[in-house]
Amino acid sequence: MTTDGALARLIRSSADRTAAAEREVCDLCAAPVADEHAHLYDTGQEEVRCVCGPCSVLFADAAAGDGQYRLVPRRRLRLPKVDTTVLGVPVGLVFFVPRADGTVTAEGPSPAGAMRWEVDTAAWQELAGTCPQLATVEPDVEALLVNTVHGLDEHWIVPIDDCYRMIAVVRREWRGMSGGGRIWPAVEQFFEDLTERP
């Protein structure tokens, strides 16, 4: 056995372990998941978790798991302009999440993650009166995603995992105090890549 052969095997073995470590797995059973996979929303931890196909079937009924885990729907619906000024949120890139307890939160991305604040429930109901699709948003697992930065006019009903992906884009691209020059093109690309699905 030569040193080159042993070194090559060691490098290959290390690369295989690194690739295996980077591969996503189901957060419930640890089985590998496909690139396109379902997500669960953990209502206790307020986190999105990856889930394999068989485990996702267990949570198809909203009552499964005593409501701690909610299967995140796949629906994306582009809305006409929604005047969110009634909600009192002075941010152009934000998502609004109605909660199971009747409250509504607004969350905006920052370099440190999501900033969250409460929205007046009556204001949300008033807005839903002008845009009936908002009444169909599933609590905790869907959101109204808005981007009016730099003159854009994006309003979507999306799964909550899309919102967390948007936050990850902002965190990844943010540079310096003001965000730098890469952040807004990346956010615009994120919205360009959104496609409607039932």
Give the SSE map.
Elements: H1 3-22, E1 38-42, E2 47-51, H2 53-58, E3 69-71, E4 77-78, E5 93-98, E6 104-110, E7 113-119, H3 121-130, E8 142-147, E9 154-159, H4 160-173, H5 183-193
Antiparallel strand pairs: 1-2, 1-3, 4-9, 5-6, 5-8, 6-7, 8-9
Helix pairs in contact: 4-5
Low-confidence stretches: none
Number of strands: 9
Structural class by secondary-structure content:
alpha+beta
Write down the overall mean pLDDT.
Answer: 89
Lateral arrangement of strands in the main beta sheet: 4-9-8-5-6-7
The percent of residues in helical segments reads 25-40%
Task: Provide a count of the helices.
Answer: 5
Measure the end-to-end span: 59 Å
Beta percentage is 15-25%
Largest sheet: 6 strands, antiparallel
Radius of gyration: 20 Å
- How would you spell out the order of helices and strands? HEEHEEEEEHEEHH
Shape: globular
Protein name: DUF5947 family protein
Organism: Streptomyces massasporeus
Pfam families: DUF5947
InterPro entries: DUF5947
Short description:
It comes from Streptomyces massasporeus. The protein is built from 5 helices and 9 strands, in the order αββαβββββαββαα.
What do you see in this structure?
Helices cover 31% and strands 24% of the residues. It has 198 residues and is α+β, with helices and mostly antiparallel strands. Strands 4-9-8-5-6-7 form a 6-stranded antiparallel sheet. Strands 2-1-3 form a 3-stranded antiparallel sheet. α4 runs antiparallel to α5.
